[in-house]
Structure formats: C-alpha cells, structure tokens
Amino acid sequence: MNQVRVERRLAESGACLRCSCSQETILHALRDCPHSREVLMSVGSNLEWSSLVMDCYHWLKGIILNKDAIKISITLWWVWRFRNNMIFNDERWMISEVCQNVVLSTVENSLYNVKRRLWEEKALWRPLEHPWVKLNTDGS
C-alpha cells in the first residue's frame, strides 16, 4: 500500500493512486477503494456491507468464517492484482475483465477440487500381515 511505501521512502505520497483517497491502507486497497468495492459488488461476494466499518482483523476473520470464503479470497486476489497492474504497470483493466477473471478462477478452483477429490481420504499405508513389522522413519 502506498501508506507503507511512504514510510519506507519508496513513494512520495501515501494517497491511493486509483481514487485519490489521502491514505491507501490495506483495507482501502482491498475493500474501501471504489474500484475494489465495485469488483466485490459485481461478482456478488457474500460480504455483509456492515462489515465495511470493521477493522482489518475482524474483517479478515469474517471472510475466513464466511461460507463463500474461497470465492471471496479469489476475488480479493484479483482485486489486489487489479490494483498492482494499475499502479506498477500502468495497465487499466475494466471492471468486467476483473470480474471475468474471478469467475474463471473460481471455476478452475472448483474443477481442481473435483479432480483431486480433496474431501476423500485415501489410505496409502496399510499394516503388513503377521509376522511382518514395518517401521516408518523420516530418514534422519
């Protein structure tokens, strides 16, 4: 965030370069900037708008505990990338492009989870039949 970059003498101003807010904090970059908020609202992130006044800790905790935590996390990652491309690469994506990337990433994540069947436990080790004994070590 520009506020941190100013403190480290990496930027001249702590203002948000996207909306000209006087301080770009982590919450501003991900949640409060009008560009970020438009993406969050456009993809239908299941965030209560009352959470927009929460501090960073409680806001992130609310996301982790949300039933749509994966979709919200993917959305925030694209919001972050959207912000960085505007600031560091001077590339201006349209909100619709960011939303499309969120949808594609969400689908890819779902397909990956189905393919890997992460919810199924696979027993890879079975004890040997009597009289054999097996000792597993970590190799140290």
UniProtKB/TrEMBL annotation:
It comes from the Eukaryota. PROSITE patterns: ZF_SWIM. The lineage of its organism: Eukaryota, Viridiplantae, Streptophyta, Embryophyta, Tracheophyta. GO terms for molecular function: zinc ion binding. Keywords: Metal-binding, Zinc, Zinc-finger. This is SWIM-type domain-containing protein. The keyword Metal-binding applies. Residues 4-44 form the SWIM-type domain. It comes from Cajanus cajan (Pigeon pea). InterPro entries: Znf_SWIM.
